[in-house]
Q: What sequence folds into this?
């Protein structure tokens, strides 16, 4: 593993040296090596805000894409069709049985699949199949390490000063707002969206789809780039996680160009059932981990499951409006509620200091390698992302990279740190009726685009991408 | 030449990682261990107890004490008085083995240290007040590279305060980094041409640029900062907590007690100096023991080009781990395990607005930034040390988080970065934030005790909590009941 990551990092060195060669040099006319064309810059240049938005918009036609519903199944078909339109002929699906929801979340869940709610203490979901489908995630404890009591909630007020812990081993500081999953279809004010989300969960297996860019030199090794195409909350799941899904699809589009070659393979995976407890990603690991690196048929040079080199997840990419802040009333004073507690709200604008958060899990088996991978992404972002910086944190949690974190280096890219920030209510659209297309501005979409630039650049380095 | 070399150096990021592996394999120099796992962590209640000894009011009082010596510019009488005052304070904490180290700043033409444009690289030659002019020259270097970084603003600064030091300093400054450094101290941070995004330490610059406060010293400050730079040698002071089982190994904690700017150098860097002094006080509380040693170093001449820290490495690196006298179990220079620097600890009011102004308050998302240098020989081990401090902060800091970054630069940890794991703690990332004007009081006459609110002081305290708890774990601190 180490050598792969170092090789990737070395690519940065080469580029920086190339940059140095372009500096005017006084005195000795040093022999100018032919400046290699910056293929990575070329590839990053193929990402466009409007294309990213168009893909994201396409996903919203399937509403919240809740796992197992018809709209979810239709979205899987649509995604596959899109990927094939980019030129992929190797789209594959895996099928899995999602765990039966243990908790009601609105009337769209047929009574037949709803069981009486068990006593649910903070750490549900750690046991693999136990994850609840609809509700429950607000407690934030579904992550692999599960060591922490529920992070969300926060009591609504200025919970600040206590030594509160969030999911993933994170630490909560400052103002917090409560978070929860909207389970009320009628809470969605837009009738069109209400209608979109009206269908029930259809019992039975569900699919997820992926395509693969085959490496020229090492087709037997790959990075997995993922996002989850399902959502919930009676919305359009624009940010969570249309934003990550469109990012992965856009990367698939850029790499699909036959003139673009990578030495190593890349798999673009659109997980299903993340909101049900990382169902699709867990199923993928369960079904395919053992197949890694096996040539089939023998001598064919074909590897149905190239060896995993790393997993890069994208989940909630656009909203970084900062910490909840006191609401100032018309009288110029902080507003208080009926209980005399300060009212908090999140700004409507992207904050100036918005960043892309790359996280690894410090408690995972691959913490060291994952941390190095995270910093490859940070440095790639600094070189190629156009508007926003990248920050690295050690508390990756509650997303599809979790099932991979003890098998390969795994990281997630997000708008915020999942434990310390999302968990403290920094994103009021999270799982609520606000997660709709009209909520977001170009400043928001652009943060997602910057994450796309970051992953594309890092991935191009790691897989040895060239443009013919 | 300096320019080119620094670029190539910047390119060495991965090489650095490889070099770490190589360095740890070659047996020659003292091989620092990675911090993780070298000591079983003490019972967490002892760490929490120690952290509980940190108090906002005591931290503020120590900062206040330092500000009585004005900007404490290296070599002035006020600087010398401050050294003596710090020494007396350390002794009063029970840190009785205080030592002083003498040094004469090296002449740094052509960017030997490469870190500092300003502050009178010519040692005593720099007259009080030359600070602004000297650093404006960073932009001269930038202009030479054709990048036109922040040129306008910086030239304005040169016109205002420009002095003889400018040209010379321009060479010392890594030219292409002028975007942040040059514009920063010389004048307003002008808007940068879009392609220019490279900051110091290998950082990348984003967003709006800020403006310096432009404050002018009042009569009190003028008097306080009136004295000239006296001839070298200069002095710095340090004291050491001796480890019980491993007295021959130590971590070095540092802040720089000198400043510039004709103010009180409250944030830069009384805030870091007071932090180190407060930690010295707590580790010398009766009953507190550490297995390994800790040296509390109050660097001088940072603003002149990391002068004391550079001299410390030159004078003392070779003495590491030597028992003197033989058989005494005394080690005048315990083997270095890591160096943690603290420089500008309090002000994180966020990115400047489009007009260059800043919020009057600490931003709610304020953090302290834990940086290492990706481009150093000890990059990987330094990254792990930074992570250790980050995780300690997650556990013990009460109000603000710590954030990791790979672009440590322009402070006293730099002379150590190729020898041992070295990190810095700051209010902002030095290259990307400070470098583009997130702190308008930086090197200004407005860097005064009264400029800062308790929310600002508290950020410094949170960094103190982080370093204290991390170092307590790393040195195996316990409290005898």
A:
């Amino acid at each position: 593993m180490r050598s792969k990551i170092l090789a990737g990092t070395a690519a940065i060195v080469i580029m920086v040296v190339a940059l140095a060669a372009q500096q005017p040099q006084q005195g000795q006319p040093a022999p100018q090596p032919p400046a290699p064309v910056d293929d990575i810059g070329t590839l990053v240049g193929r990402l466009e805000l409007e294309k990213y938005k168009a893909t994201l918009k396409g996903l919203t036609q399937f509403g919240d894409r809740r796992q197992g519903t018809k709209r979810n199944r239709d979205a899987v078909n649509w995604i596959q069709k899109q990927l094939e339109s980019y030129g992929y002929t190797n789209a594959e699906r895996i099928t899995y049985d999602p765990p039966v929801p243990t908790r009601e979340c609105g009337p769209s869940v047929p009574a037949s699949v709803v069981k009486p709610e068990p006593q649910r203490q903070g750490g549900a979901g750690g046991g693999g199949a136990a994850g609840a489908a609809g509700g429950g995630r607000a407690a934030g404890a579904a992550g692999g390490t599960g060591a922490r009591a529920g992070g969300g909630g926060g009591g609504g007020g200025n919970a600040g000063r206590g030594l509160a812990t969030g999911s993933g081993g994170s630490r909560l500081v400052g103002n917090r707002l409560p978070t929860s999953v909207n389970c009320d279809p009628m809470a969605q004010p837009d009738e069109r969206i209400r209608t979109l989300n009206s269908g029930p969960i259809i019992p039975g297996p569900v699919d997820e789809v992926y395509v693969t860019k085959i490496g020229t030199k090492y087709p037997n090794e790959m990075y997995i780039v993922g996002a989850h195409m399902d959502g919930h909350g009676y919305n359009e799941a624009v940010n969570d996680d249309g934003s990550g899904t469109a990012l992965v699809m856009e990367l698939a589009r850029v790499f699909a160009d036959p003139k673009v070659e990578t030495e190593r393979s890349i798999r673009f995976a659109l997980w299903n059932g993340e909101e049900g407890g990382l169902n699709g990603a867990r199923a993928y690991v369960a079904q395919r981990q053992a197949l890694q690196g096996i040539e089939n048929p023998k001598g064919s040079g074909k590897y149905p499951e190239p060896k995993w080199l790393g997993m890069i997840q994208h989940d909630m990419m656009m909203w970084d409006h900062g910490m909840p802040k006191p609401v100032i009333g018309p009288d110029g004073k902080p507003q208080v509620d009926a209980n005399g507690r300060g009212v908090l709200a999140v700004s409507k604008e992207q904050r100036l200091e918005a960043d892309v958060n790359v996280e690894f899990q410090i408690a995972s088996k691959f913490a060291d390698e994952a941390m190095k991978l995270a910093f490859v992404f940070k440095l790639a972002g600094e070189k190629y992302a156009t508007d926003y910086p990248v920050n690295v944190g050690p508390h990756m949690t509650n997303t599809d990279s979790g099932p991979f974190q003890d098998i390969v280096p795994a990281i997630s890219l997000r708008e915020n740190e999942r434990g310390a920030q999302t968990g403290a209510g920094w994103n009021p659209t999270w799982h609520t009726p606000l997660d709709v297309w009209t909520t977001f501005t170009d400043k928001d979409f652009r943060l997602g685009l910057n994450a796309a630039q970051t992953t594309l650049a890092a991935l191009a380095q790691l897989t040895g991408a060239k443009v013919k | 030449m300096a320019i080119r070399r620094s670029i190539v150096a910047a390119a060495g990021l991965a090489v650095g990682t490889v070099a770490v592996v190589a360095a740890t394999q070659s047996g020659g120099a003292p091989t620092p261990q990675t911090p993780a796992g070298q000591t079983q962590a003490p019972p967490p209640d002892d760490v929490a107890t120690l952290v509980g000894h940190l108090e906002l009011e005591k931290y503020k009082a120590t900062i206040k004490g330092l500000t009585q010596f004005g900007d404490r510019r290296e070599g002035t009488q006020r600087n010398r008085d401050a050294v003596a005052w710090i020494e007396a304070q350390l002794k009063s904490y029970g840190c009785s083995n205080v030592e002083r180290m003498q040094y004469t700043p090296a002449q740094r033409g052509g960017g030997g240290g490469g870190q500092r444009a300003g502050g009178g690289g010519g040692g005593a030659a720099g007259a009080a007040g030359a600070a602004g002019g000297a650093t404006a020259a960073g932009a001269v270097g930038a202009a030479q590279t054709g990048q036109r970084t922040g040129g306008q603003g910086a030239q304005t600064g040169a016109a205002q305060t420009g002095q003889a030091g400018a040209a010379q300093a321009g060479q010392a400054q890594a030219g292409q980094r002028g975007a942040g450094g040059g514009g920063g101290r010389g004048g307003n941070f002008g808007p940068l041409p879009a392609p220019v995004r490279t900051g110091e330490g290998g950082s990348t610059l984003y967003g709006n640029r800020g403006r310096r406060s432009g404050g002018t010293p009042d009569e009190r400050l003028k008097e306080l900062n009136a004295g000239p730079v006296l001839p070298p040698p200069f002095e710095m002071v340090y004291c050491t907590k001796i480890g019980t089982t491993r007295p021959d190994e130590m971590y070095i904690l540092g802040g720089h007690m000198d400043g510039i700017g004709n103010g009180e150098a409250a944030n830069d860097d009384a805030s870091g100096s007071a932090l180190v002094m407060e930690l010295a006080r707590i580790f010398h509380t009766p009953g507190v023991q550490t297995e390994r040693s800790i040296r509390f170093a109050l660097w001088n001449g940072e603003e002149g080009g990391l002068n004391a820290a550079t001299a410390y490495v030159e004078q003392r690196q070779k003495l590491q781990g030597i028992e003197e006298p033989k058989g005494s179990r005394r080690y005048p220079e315990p083997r270095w395990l890591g160096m943690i620097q603290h420089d500008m600890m309090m002000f994180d009011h966020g990115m400047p607005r489009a007009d260059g102004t800043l919020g009057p308050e600490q931003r709610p998302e304020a953090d302290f930034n834990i940086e290492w240098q990706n481009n150093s020989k000890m990059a990987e081990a330094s990254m792990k040390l930074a992570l250790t401090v980050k995780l300690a902060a997650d556990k013990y800091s009460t109000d603000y988080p710590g954030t990791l970054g790979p672009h440590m630069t322009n402070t006293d940890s730099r002379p150590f970065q190729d020898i041992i794991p070295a990190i810095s703690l700051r209010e902002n990332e030095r290259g990307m934030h400070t470098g583009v004007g997130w702190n308008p009081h930086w090197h200004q006459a407005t860097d005064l005790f009264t400029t800062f609110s308790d929310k600002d002081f508290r950020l410094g305290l949170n960094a103190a909590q982080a370093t204290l708890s991390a170092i307590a774990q790393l040195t195996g601190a316990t409290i005898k009941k």
Notes: Chain A has nine helices and 14 strands. The first helix of chain A runs from residue 2 to 22.
